[in-house]
């Protein structure tokens, strides 16, 4: 990593050296594709060593046992599930479908023209904050922010003559931190509320019935400003200075919009508004469904919605700019987009095997329950209990990437423990959300981590896991410290974490 340390303070020089060391160690690891293959093989071996080790779910009394893949039955599973593991790799379809829309907008020049419009119309000093804020709010669209914002952030920074990886990192940090902060309610709130209420019901059924989807809203809304400010400062003061000047082949000088580009932008913008209006109608009408909005057919199809919202304006702009004159031109541009994703597709194969093996062996579940049992046996109370619980959650996040999957395992254990120590279920859930969010961006087991690496490699083909983790660690640490300070203020003032959701039980 090239960086200019001549004008830096002693603290930042020391910090940069430490991050350089982390990057060096991390990049000594094999390529991400090979690393996931090695990890998949390692899981197979470990499952054989710990075969038969089991834990008991204290709520359901279900026994979960490590399944041995280092056996004839395991070999049968490995061979017969390989294709399915690849196809079922959660981000694969979402990334490819979304990138078809974004790619067309990029190939036709719409994103390039939009970028120029932003560069010449928005103050540079506001762009980092706007990008982080957009990342935080993107959790409204579940995981779509991981696919859309990091590549756009990189392009935006590049157009401003800034380092594209800094833009990618800022967006990634905002999206990851956004799962613990938002100005609106999201599907995550609904999922966690259900799991928390079920866990609390084992101690106090009457109280469990009062737990609502808004249980963490006050704290989550206040956290939006916190994450936006911290994310902006870390990007501008640490991450981008450490990256230094970008000298890649993608760098270019932006000129003002031409008459044709302006006309294409106007018509593409009109196409976007019409498409957006149709989507709003569908979301409130034919695709509204009978249940909660966040469980509606429309909400469950957000990946396709995002594809359409990019595809239609991109198609219109391509026709106006003469980049698309017939169906063959359209096919060629879409093919170029998919060709640019070939490295990610190959990576998804080995990553999909690893994720599937880890889930099939139950190793993550056993680790999580043992961590919960450890907390129960510590005898900690107060600050020690809170910090230990958060530490265990952050550790578990390195083994189980899904937020809802982790809470499905941890809530039945931690919520009753914390209630017996006078902490409300809502407060326990808040601690979980903070711990989960701050470690999402530094765990290779996050399902979208390979996606971010693939986007980053468009600007630096040699980038490895070490480079990405070293970029994201400052955000992770800063978010954690900032949230701990805000949490302390919240506890000292006794502010409810949400409507009718006190800290104490």
UniProtKB/TrEMBL annotation:
Listed GO biological process terms: p-aminobenzoyl-glutamate transmembrane transport
Spans traversing the lipid bilayer: 33-53, 86-105, 126-149, 217-235, 267-286, 298-320, 341-359, 379-400, 437-456, 468-493
InterPro entries registered for this protein in UniProt: AbgT (IPR004697)
Recorded coiled-coil stretches: none
Keyword Membrane: yes
GO molecular function: secondary active p-aminobenzoyl-glutamate transmembrane transporter activity
Keywords: Membrane, Transmembrane, Transmembrane helix
PANTHER family: P-AMINOBENZOYL GLUTAMATE TRANSPORTER, P-AMINOBENZOYL-GLUTAMATE TRANSPORT PROTEIN
Full protein name: AbgT putative transporter
Species annotation: Salimicrobium jeotgali
């Amino acid at each position: 990593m090239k960086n200019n340390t001549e004008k830096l303070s002693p603290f930042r020089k020391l910090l940069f050296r430490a991050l350089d060391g982390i990057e060096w160690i991390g990049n000594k690891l094999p390529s991400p594709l090979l690393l996931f293959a090695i990890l998949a093989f390692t899981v197979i071996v470990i499952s054989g060593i710990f075969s038969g080790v089991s834990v008991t779910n204290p709520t359901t009394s279900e026994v979960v046992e490590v399944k041995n893949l280092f056996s004839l039955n395991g070999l049968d599973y490995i061979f017969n599930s390989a294709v399915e593991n690849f196809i079922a790799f959660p981000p694969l379809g979402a990334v490819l479908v979304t990138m078809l829309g974004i790619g067309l907008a990029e190939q036709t020049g719409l994103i390039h023209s939009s970028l120029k419009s932003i560069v010449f119309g928005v103050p540079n000093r506001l762009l980092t904050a706007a990008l982080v804020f957009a990342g935080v709010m993107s959790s409204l669209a579940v995981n779509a922010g991981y696919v859309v914002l990091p590549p756009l952030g990189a392009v935006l920074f590049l157009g401003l003559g800034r380092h594209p990886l800094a833009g990618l990192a800022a967006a990634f940090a905002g999206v990851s931190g956004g799962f613990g902060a938002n100005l609106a309610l999201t599907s995550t709130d609904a999922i966690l509320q259900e799991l928390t209420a079920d866990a609390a019901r084992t101690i106090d059924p009457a109280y469990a019935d009062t737990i609502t989807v808004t249980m963490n809203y006050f704290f989550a809304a206040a956290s939006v400003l916190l994450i936006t400010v911290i994310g902006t400062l870390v990007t501008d003061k640490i991450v981008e200075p450490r990256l230094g000047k970008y000298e890649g082949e993608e760098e270019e000088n932006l000129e003002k919009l031409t008459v044709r580009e302006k006309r294409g932008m106007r018509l593409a913008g009109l196409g976007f508004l019409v498409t957006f209006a149709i989507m709003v109608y569908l979301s409130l009408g034919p695709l509204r469904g009978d249940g909660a909005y966040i469980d509606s057919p429309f909400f469950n199809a957000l990946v396709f919605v995002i594809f359409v919202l990019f595809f239609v304006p991109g198609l219109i702009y391509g026709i106006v700019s003469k980049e698309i004159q017939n169906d063959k031109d359209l096919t060629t541009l879409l093919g170029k987009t998919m060709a640019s994703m070939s490295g990610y597709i190959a990576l998804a194969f080995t990553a999909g095997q690893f994720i599937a093996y880890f889930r099939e062996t139950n190793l993550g579940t056993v680790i999580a329950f043992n961590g919960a049992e450890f907390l129960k046996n510590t005898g900690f109370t107060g600050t020690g209990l809170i910090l230990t619980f958060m530490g265990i959650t952050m550790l578990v996040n390195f083994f189980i990437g899904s937020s809802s999957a982790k809470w499905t395992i941890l809530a039945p254990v931690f919520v009753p423990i914390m209630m017996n120590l006078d902490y409300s279920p809502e407060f326990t859930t808040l601690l979980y959300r903070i711990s989960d969010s701050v470690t999402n961006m530094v765990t290779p087991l996050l399902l979208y981590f390979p996606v971010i690496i693939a986007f980053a490699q468009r600007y630096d083909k040699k980038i490895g896991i070490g480079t990405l983790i070293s970029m994201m660690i400052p955000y992770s640490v800063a978010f954690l410290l900032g949230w701990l300070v805000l949490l302390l203020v919240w506890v000292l003032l006794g502010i409810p974490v949400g409507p009718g959701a006190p800290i104490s039980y």
